[in-house]
Automatic annotation (TrEMBL):
Belongs to the UPF0391 family. Its main location: membrane. It comes from Swingsia samuiensis. It is found in: Cell membrane. This is UPF0391 membrane protein E3D00_04755. The chain crosses the membrane at residues 31-50. GO terms for cellular component: plasma membrane.
Amino acid sequence: MDLLRWTVVFLILALLAGLLGFTGISSDFAYIGKILFFIFVILFVISLIFKRGQPKL
């Protein structure tokens, strides 16, 4: 869940930077947040696939 939390942090930073007029920094924060979100989704799907094959105790 840390990746999702960092994604939200970078989204908030991007919005604040955009509101203050720092468009270059805002786009960088948004890009980093997007990358972290996709890494989170990929790892989440992989964990679902591998957890499904294990027997429940």
